[in-house]
Request: fold
Amino acid sequence: MDPNWILLFPPLALALLLGHLSGHGAGKLGVPQVTVYLLMGIVLGPHGLAALEWMPAWTEVFTLGVEDHDALGVLEHIAIGFILYRVGTEFRFQDLRRIGPRVVALSLGEVLLTGSLVFLAVWFVTGNLVVASVAPVLAISSAPSATLLTLREVEADGRASRAILLLVGLNNLITLLVFPIPLALAFGVGDPKTATLVALAALGIGVAVGLVISIVLESAGRVRYRTLLGVIGVIACVGLVGILPGDPVGLAMLACFGAGVAVVNSSPHAEEFTLDLERAVYPLYALFFVAAGSGLQVERLGQLGALGLAFIGARVTGKLLGSFIGIKLGGFGKELPSYLGLGLMCQAGVALGILNALEGSAVAEPITRDLRGVVLASVVFFELVGPWLTRRTVIEAGEVKLANLVLQRPGAGGLREVRDELMRNLGADAVGRIEADGGLCVRHAMHRAPDVANSNLGFEAVLKLFGESGHDTLTVVNSEHKPVGVIAFSDIQDILYDPSLRNLVIAEDLMQPLLVTFTPELPLSEALVRMDAESVHSVAVVEDGHLAGMLSRRDVYSTLHRAFADMDAEAKGGRS
Reply:
């Protein structure tokens, strides 16, 4: 083993520690943890402290030089494999059968407009048709890593969150499959047909690995076995594509994506398997972003110029306006927010892989040199700004519970927590007790953008809503968006087998009257008592006569669990 690898550990450990400590405070300011880790990588990387000549020699132990970043390539390669596997698990065939054509329309609207605007912008500034023909492929792709981890951090759950992940997956799939075409047409490099077949072969390898995982999952009962199986599967995908000609990073991404698609559609244990795997490899994600941050060339932001501003402006406009048009084309109406494109701004991964391919071509390298510099600068910009925009998108869409934003573990209580834990283990009595719910109320735990059915909605449309939402309860609202009842899926199952009724009943006929409603300011502990008393699992939250959200037992339990886990040290020290 190369002894220089040992020198990587101190700066990585320092970056992770600083990122963790500062992440809680940054979260209160709305800065995603992903951005914090990227910033730590920049500060300690070859374009930060390591580049300062006046730094003492001993500080080299705690900084990442250029050679260190190059050595982290294997880590980044594996991490992106896990991330693309996770993105692939969003492509469930049962969901795509219902919304597939609409999602394709949404994706095409966003991809075509983004590509067209970037093409025109680059052509206008450079006057070079060859360079302009390659630029759209670099702009279309989105960074699955930063997007996924940002959504995961705030536990976003809803249609906009799922749509963002689907679009990110489709963006990168389109980019990887289409890139050989402009490369061959513009520079005469490679054969588009061969490159496409190789890409499809990589997808096939991933699907085969995923099917094997699904078969073995049937006998892998324990969590540690499932986790080990997931790690083996991703590493197998990354390794097996090595037999194929072409960019190993891009092919590995396709293979891992294919494995995720195969597992989620062929194994009944896919959901728990994916959650177990995510918990196990999260430290790898954090390391990935530190490594990615160390490679961001921040100084290029000052070299954007007219071409850079045109590229960034066209990409932002294309993503935002294209998704807006795609929502209209797909007939989503108010199901998705009009500003959905803001959640697709993260850029890295695939774009950097394409830049490497251009740089490695003797024909394309001199012609695209200026464009590559601009894209590197845009990656820095979008990786720092993109996660924040993604976070704001799902928050504004009402798909993040307030508890996930306000329950931040304060770093200042660390010493008190250690003190109290030592006292407990030494047999001393700790002081104070945890309050029943930490002062939390219904507003903190409710889903602020629940799926609702208009009272005059037909049975088939109600059934479609159940399928798309994934929940077993829908709130029925009247024309003034005031809640008038609730429909439980168990209440309509009999109608599924009676065709004569399916075309006659509407939501108003199917609903049960609201036995209980909550106000947003009701204490969470009292809400749970009332849910137990009424034997209900979901309750509409009403404010000023209008539906403000939906609270389920699962929401209450998960929020209380998080509150107890994140309670300050003084309160936690009082448990007896």
Notes: The beta strands are 452-454, 473-477, 483-488, 517-518, 538-543, 546-552. The chain has 27 helices and six strands. The first helix runs from residue 9 to 28.
